Amino acid sequence: KAGVTQTPRYLIKTRGQQVTLSCSPISGHRSVSWYQQTPGQGLQFLFEYFSETQRNKGNFPGRFSGRQFSNSRSEMNVSTLELGDSALYLCASSFGQGTETQYFGPGTRLLVL
Amino acid sequence: QQQVKQSPQSLIVQKGGISIINCAYENTAFDYFPWYQQFPGKGPALLIAIRPDVSEKKEGRFTISFNKSAKQFSLHIMDSQPGDSATYFCAASMFGSYKLIFGSGTRLLVRP
User: Fold this and answer.
1) Chain B residues touching residue A42 (CB < 8 angstroms)
2) A34-57 pLDDT per residue, tens
3) Closest CA to B93 of A85, A62, A60, A43
């Protein structure tokens, strides 16, 4: 069974631009969560989607948004990029009901210049 | 109250030794405690997880010990190997939530 895939793997943007990251969950998984990983703040929860609905949201500004499609694939968008948004963005998938086990993808490393 | 505190920040162990990483939490609503292992350039991978109704869980060389009254849990890696060198994260979540609260991570180095 294929794991969680994330595209692109690496991205370089400049301040003020926007970016869209994509995540394809493990087949059969309906829940997708997004996390930001930085050396200073560690792993922080962004949001979680299940059946195209956002069920939970972390403490990030409104510049961070996401969505989920009917095939469970998810995208997250960051608008008006800031230098501090440079991070590894991780996507995790799970069945979404009955078990909390989450499987992480390899991440997208975003560098904002 | 949402924090999970993890220690030590880094750990060096000789091959064959025992690696011990500790975590503590405040929120008694947490009821799922996984440990993740992360290698450079990779996403975190689930190692082992425990719920509060169990005091210990063992999977191969990895054991979680859970002390509900002290609100602490720890990961023990027996017979540590150089291939175990990675960053380890403890985490916690509440029933029905897929929001994992992570500890700050422990960088483990196992010397040959």
Assistant:
1) 89, 102-105
2) 999 999 899 999 999 999 999 999
3) A43
